[in-house]
């Protein structure tokens, strides 16, 4: 039986913290689908298609990872893909409370899918996409926070918004 996990997120944009969680999940599961979901409470900088392209570029070297997107409920998507697990990254205790609520609801919607939490590497414990966007917007150095393809995309986005 193939162990399939979904690593969902908005990935706006993908950071080294995300990549760390994805790589570690790929070491445990036979296949990991990195799924872009639109978070209605956030206004994204990158379109879903742009985020998919950045994810494909940054995960291309991980053979058992694929990239997809979905606009509905995560548990419906998990059922459709016949996934056994959801993988979520945790940076701090504050993340845990939020993730606990989501996991409890997901369990109610589909009790056949388990959620696995992976603690982020300490070097990424402060890192968030929002923080990266804020630093990049004001032309700060994000080269040690995101892959170079993402850094270039951020520079391009903010260059366009300066006009």
**Helical/strand content category:** alpha/beta
Number of domains: 1
Instruction: Estimate the strand proportion.
Output: 15-25%
Any idea what the shape is? globular
Which strands sit side by side, in order, in the main sheet?
3-2-1-4-5
Average pLDDT confidence is 92
What would the CATH topology be?
A: Rossmann fold
Uncertain regions spanning at least 5 consecutive residues: none
Distance between the termini: 53 Å
What's the helical proportion of residues? 40-55%
Pattern of helices and strands: EHEHEHEHEHH
* CATH class wording: Alpha Beta
Biggest pleated-sheet summary: 5 strands, parallel
Count of DSSP-assigned helices = 6
CATH fourth-tier homologous superfamily? HUPs
CATH architecture: 3-Layer(aba) Sandwich
Report the radius of gyration as a whole number of Å.
16 Å
How many beta strands in the DSSP annotation?
Answer: 5
In short:
This protein is α/β, with parallel strands linked by helices. 45% of the residues lie in helices and 19% in strands.
Can you give a write-up of this model?
One of its GO terms (biological process) is coenzyme A biosynthetic process. InterPro entries: Cyt_trans-like (IPR004821), PPAT (IPR001980), Rossmann-like_a/b/a_fold (IPR014729). This is Phosphopantetheine adenylyltransferase. It catalyses: (R)-4'-phosphopantetheine + ATP + H(+) = 3'-dephospho-CoA + diphosphate. A five-stranded parallel β-sheet has the order 3-2-1-4-5, with helices on both faces. It has a single domain (4-125), classed as Rossmann fold, CATH 3.40.50.620. Helix 4 links the parallel strand 4 and strand 5 (114-119). It is built from six helices and five strands. The termini are far apart. It is globular, with a radius of gyration of 16 Å. The chain has helices at residues 16-28, 48-59, 74-81, 93-109, 129-137, 148-162; strands at 4-9, 31-37, 65-70, 85-90, 114-119. The model has no long low-confidence stretch (mean pLDDT 92). With 163 residues, it is an alpha/beta fold.
């Amino acid at each position: 039986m193939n162990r399939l996990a979904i690593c969902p997120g908005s990935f706006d944009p993908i950071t080294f913290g995300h990549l760390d969680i994805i790589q570690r999940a790929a070491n445990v599961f036979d296949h990991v689908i990195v799924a872009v979901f639109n978070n209605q409470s956030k206004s994204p900088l990158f379109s879903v298609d742009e985020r998919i392209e950045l994810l494909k570029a940054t995960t291309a070297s991980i053979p058992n990872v694929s990239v997809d997107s979905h606009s509905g409920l995560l548990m419906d998507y998990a059922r459709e893909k016949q996934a056994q697990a959801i993988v979520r990254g945790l940076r701090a205790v504050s993340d845990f409370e939020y993730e606990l609520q989501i996991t409890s609801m997901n369990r109610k919607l589909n009790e056949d899918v388990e959620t696995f939490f992976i603690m982020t590497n300490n070097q990424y414990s402060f890192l968030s996409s929002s923080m990266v966007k804020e630093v990049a917007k004001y032309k700060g150095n994000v080269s040690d926070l995101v892959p170079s393809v993402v850094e270039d995309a951020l520079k391009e986005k903010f260059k366009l918004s300066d006009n």
